[in-house]
Amino acid sequence: MDVASITALIMTLALLWPAIMSQQSAMATRNPTEDYDRRSSAWRQSNWTTHPNVLKEWSSAPLALPATEADDGFNLLFQSNRKELSNFPVTFEQPLPPWLIGNLVRNGLGLFENGPRTFLHAFDGFAKLASWKFFGNSTVLFSTRFIRSDFYKASKEAKTIAPYLLFQAVAPPFGYVEKLQCLVRGLDNMNVNVYAFPNPKTGRAEYAALSDFWILYKIGIENLTTVHRVAPKLKNRQQTTSSWLQGTGFLDLLSSAHPLPEPGTNNSLTFLSSVAVLPWSRNVISLIRVKSLKRRTVVAQWNVGRVPYMHSFSVTATKAILLASPFYVNVMCMAKKAEPFSCLDWHPEEKSTLYIVTLKSGKVTTVHLDNVFSMHHVNAYDVGKQEIIMDLSTYPSPDFVKHLQLHVMRDPLARNSFDAHARLKRFSINLKKLEVREIPIDSNPRPSLATLLDMPVINEAYRSKHYCYVYGLVLKTDNVTLSNIAIVKKDLCSNGTGDRAWQAPGNYPVEPWFVARPDARVEDDGVLLLPVLDGNRRSTYLAILDARTLTLVNRAELPTNIPYSLHGRFFPV
Ligand SMILES: *[C@@H]1O[C@H](CO)[C@@H](O)[C@H](O)[C@H]1NC(C)=O
Ligand SMILES: *[C@@H]1O[C@H](CO)[C@@H](O)[C@H](O)[C@H]1NC(C)=O
Ligand SMILES: *[C@@H]1O[C@H](CO)[C@@H](O)[C@H](O)[C@H]1NC(C)=O
Ligand SMILES: *[C@@H]1O[C@H](CO)[C@@H](O)[C@H](O)[C@H]1NC(C)=O
Ligand SMILES: *[C@@H]1O[C@H](CO)[C@@H](O)[C@H](O)[C@H]1NC(C)=O
Ligand SMILES: *[C@@H]1O[C@H](CO)[C@@H](O)[C@H](O)[C@H]1NC(C)=O
Ligand SMILES: [Fe+2]
């Protein structure tokens, strides 16, 4: 947090002091590619099921784990693993495609408690990176390492969970003074995603670990080293109030763990939600152009009455689209509790709002649509000048986020008792009439299993363009047991007839990443890379699926298990 933010925060605290006080008590040889493509190995088919017609499977024979089969192994996803490894050679069961060269880096959760204290919400686990370096030969080197954030170091030093802002509380809870420290220090645990930013000076990419907040941590993907914390400055912020307040009066709070490339440039885009902390300043959402890790400029800035929680957004060839659902930050509550996830108010009766920003001019168009909530936008593209197609992984409310508590995730009864299905929805935005209309994506009124996906990934070459395939995760595939998890492929171009799913009992996959085969002529020619926890063997393996058929084509056992991994990317060399 920079000086201005601290000043702003102190001012807020001063303003809210009475309220705080009153709450105190309450509180692969010859042709390696050919070899690779030959699919004969028995293990590939053995216990795995790939469903050519998901819809049929889904409606007639649920992909259920026998009710008696324990899914204890699932809990390993939410148990700490302190083990760190550097360049550990892992062996794939089949030859690797020679074109698969690069570094798959993933971010996620590694430690759920420290000393006497434990986190309550799964999203608060200490950030732990995992990487797989592919050299185009049979060697793959695996590494895993915690991010040495200020939070991690302070916690290690103090032999407990140090007071830094978290999504939710810890047990035993922070005291009053510690809560103030949480507010001042902000969120420092970058456990959500990784991204590459260009460095125009060196011409080489710089990598960072990200969360839903404005700060980030620069990391080295060669050895997963933590370089330093970065609090990017915004130089051309327009002031809504007097200029002497330049940079103050705002608490730069929420941003996105999912930056997107700005088409036709080497820039990326993200957003920033700034909370007004002085009576005469107003809440502002800004669309930000990211030129490098640290250099950022404002594309557009607009005032909002309340600050919505947004996790991701969409970009077409010409526009950025932000979906603000009526899920607002309660500033008073934040000041009192210092727990963002406890201080978000959901208003089911209110409409959602789309902010459509023209990238060239910065013009902002506002369109309302029926109440809907989304964590992950899939993709969006322009159709002529008057229409945008936007795909979202939606939920009727943000309730499921609240269920992602450690005690719920670790208890089969509790975790099986909530609706864990997302619903992929396609919207057509008419820019002339300023209307939003939902377009059906399944020919059958009953959604295909693949339609229930979240954690969407696409072939990045189709980002901001017309595309057909989205891959993702579906939990609770039998609609009974949360840990029945499938990797799915949704076909958006032929009414879902190309939908596929892949799953096996007692195997828990996380979000995949799509790597295209070089010279690929079709969108889905490539592989999906993903860690899968084998609950029976209590170990994780890296799986390689053929993205066209969604069949398992290769895998490598890892020397240790990986707790829940949220997002990642493959950085080609
Ligand atoms: C298939 O499942 C059986 C029992 O569930 C197990 O013994 C066997 O090792 C599995 N085979 C593979 C290739 O995973
Ligand atoms: C694979 O390539 C890497 C990097 O060029 C090299 O260090 C390694 O020894 C190679 N492994 C084999 C088995 O050839
Ligand atoms: C990681 O690599 C960098 C150089 O790329 C080096 O400065 C640093 O010491 C290495 N860190 C570890 C932990 O090996
Ligand atoms: C993007 O970066 C590459 C490599 O640095 C450079 O050759 C290219 O001209 C840049 N493109 C734009 C649009 O700036
Ligand atoms: C799952 O079950 C719930 C009730 O138990 C039902 O409301 C819901 O529609 C079912 N979901 C699907 C996709 O069939
Ligand atoms: C998908 O189904 C809808 C409604 O059944 C139909 O109008 C449309 O032409 C179909 N599209 C394709 C590509 O088959
Ligand atoms: Fe995310």
Description of the molecule:
There is one protein chain. With 573 residues, this protein is mainly beta. Strands 13, 14, 15, 16, 17 and 18 form a six-stranded mixed β-sheet that branches. A hairpin with a 3-residue loop joins β25 and β26 (387-395). The protein binds 2-acetamido-2-deoxy-beta-D-glucopyranose (NAG) (6 copies) and fe (ii) ion. One 2-acetamido-2-deoxy-beta-D-glucopyranose (NAG) binds at residues 203, 265-266.
What share of the residues does DSSP label as strand, in percent?
A: 35-45%
* Global Rg: 23 Å
Helix content: 10-25%
Principal-axis shape equals globular
Number of strands: 38
Low-confidence stretches: 14-47, 51-68, 240-248
What hetero molecules are bound to the protein chains?
Answer: 2-acetamido-2-deoxy-beta-D-glucopyranose, fe (ii) ion
Largest sheet descriptor: 6 strands, mixed
What do the pLDDT scores average to?
86
Structural class: mainly beta
Descriptive terms for the model:
573 residues, mainly beta, 38 strands, binds fe (ii) ion
Show the helix and strand layout:
Layout: H1 3-23, H2 32-37, H3 42-46, E1 49-51, H4 54-60, E2 85-90, E3 101-111, E4 113-114, E5 117-119, E6 126-135, E7 140-146, H5 150-158, E8 170-171, H6 176-185, E9 193-198, E10 205-210, E11 216-220, E12 225-230, E13 233-234, E14 250-255, E15 260-261, E16 268-276, E17 284-290, E18 295-303, E19 314-315, E20 319-324, E21 327-329, H7 331-337, E22 344-346, E23 352-358, E24 364-369, E25 373-383, E26 387-395, H8 399-403, H9 406-409, H10 412-415, E27 423-430, E28 435-439, E29 454-457, E30 469-474, E31 486-491, E32 500-503, E33 507-509, E34 513-516, E35 526-534, E36 539-546, E37 551-557, E38 565-572
The structure holds 2-acetamido-2-deoxy-beta-D-glucopyranose (6 copies) and fe (ii) ion.
